[in-house]
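In response to the reviewer comment on reproducibility (Comment 2.3), we provide here a single inverse folding case reported in full, input and output, so that an independent group could reproduce the run without further information from us. The structure tokens appear first.
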């Protein structure tokens, strides 16, 4: 069995307890306006082009049978003509072109993950599966988690919760911690900001808790989108209602997704601003005053 992996990030300290390796899988059913990992949206392998690295050698155009490259006025890359065959990548000595997403077996991923096992053992860390949406490739995700548990690793999954309930519950026995996103309050706004309904996500959040899952409720704070008192109150109410939620993690918006999108030929039109530290502390304090659960800023 293979899965499409677009990054394996070692020495990760923000995706669960301790030092971790985070495995990023391609494919996501959501279309969040502020997406921080746009290279993880498509399930298919893509080509990333970084113009600042291009040395205008023309080697890519020389091997492209579909004429996707032109040097007439600088370096032009016509993605609509590209079949992603990869021949241009082999010729790009400057590293301006590279694949985003590679098919890997569970064994291949685990070999990379286990190379840092000593750090997990000394820090209480382990492996986190992220994306994209890990349950978009649910069979691969579940087998990967099983393999990690067989090696005695702590496991975590960063998820939007948007999948069939039976899928998430089938994987639950091999997941030590759910990093569960809560992005907006109210179905209409949730659809506007993420492209999907909210009800299935809330149903899965409750199902995971009822089944004994441990949850960190991850809440992105996006100025101009969800930074309202109504949303903050809903976060606190949800934390109080759902016993499996151990703490709330507030994640301030950052614009890194914009540059990533450009490299794969996409445009991220939504632009917000990074919340000030004082504003984030104000939000944290408000939510913490409405729930007995710890509230942290990522």
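Designed residues, in position order:
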């Amino acid at each position: 069995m293979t899965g499409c992996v677009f990054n394996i990030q070692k020495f990760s300290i923000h995706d669960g307890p301790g030092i971790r390796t985070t495995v990023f899988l391609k494919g996501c059913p959501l279309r969040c306006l502020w997406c921080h990992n746009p290279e993880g949206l498509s399930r298919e392998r893509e080509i990333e082009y970084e113009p600042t690295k291009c040395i205008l050698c023309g080697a890519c155009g020389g091997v492209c049978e579909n004429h996707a490259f032109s040097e007439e006025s600088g370096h032009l890359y016509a993605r609509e003509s590209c079949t992603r065959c990869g021949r241009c990548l082999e010729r790009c000595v400057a590293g301006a072109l590279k694949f985003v997403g590679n098919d890997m077996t569970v064994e291949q991923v685990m070999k990379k993950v286990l190379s840092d096992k000593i750090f997990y053992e000394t820090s209480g860390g382990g492996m986190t599966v992220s994306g994209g949406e890990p349950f978009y490739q649910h069979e691969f995700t579940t087998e990967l988690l099983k393999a990690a548990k067989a090696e005695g690793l702590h496991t975590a999954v960063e998820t939007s919760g948007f999948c069939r309930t039976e899928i998430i519950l089938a994987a639950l026995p091999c997941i030590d911690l759910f990093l569960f996103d809560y992005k907006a309050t109210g179905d209409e706004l949730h659809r506007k900001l993420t492209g999907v309904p909210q009800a299935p996500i809330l149903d899965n959040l409750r199902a995971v808790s009822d089944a004994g899952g441990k949850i960190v409720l991850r809440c992105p704070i996006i100025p101009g989108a969800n930074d309202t008192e109504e949303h903050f109150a809903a976060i606190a109410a949800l934390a109080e209602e759902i016993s499996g939620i151990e703490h709330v993690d507030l994640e301030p918006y950052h614009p890194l997704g914009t540059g990533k999108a450009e490299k794969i030929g996409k445009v991220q039109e939504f632009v917000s601003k990074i919340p000030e530290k004082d504003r984030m502390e104000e939000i944290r304090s408000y939510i913490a005053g409405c729930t007995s659960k710890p509230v942290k800023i990522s």
